[in-house]
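User: My collaborator sent over this chain with a note saying "see what the structure looks like." That's all I know about it. Can you take a look?
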Amino acid sequence: REAVLAAAMRLFAERTYAGDGVEEIAAAAGMANSSVYHHFSGKTEILWAALQRGTGYLQLILDHVLATAALVIGPEDGLRFLERSEVDGLIVTPALEQFMTPGLHDE
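Assistant: Without extra context I'll predict from the sequence alone. Here is the result:
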């Protein structure tokens, strides 16, 4: 299941959801199509699980950043801290950043 999600998130970030099917996800995860269907009913369920994972991860980052920023005195310093922390957290997983913000990195 984890291998499927990781492969799907990477492929969706690189080529979009419409650009990949279960066959491509299975190949990227190094497994047969039937193995993907053992964990998920189809591509829509994979996308749903990936979105839940991504939004959960972003919520953890935001909760940490807001809790830490609450300790900072002054709105200017707090906003600077929020800006740096959010970007730093997303850089850790660039595929997730691309997946959650499609089109922002196309230039």
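A starting point for your reply to your collaborator: The CA atoms of residues 11 and 24 lie 8 Å apart.
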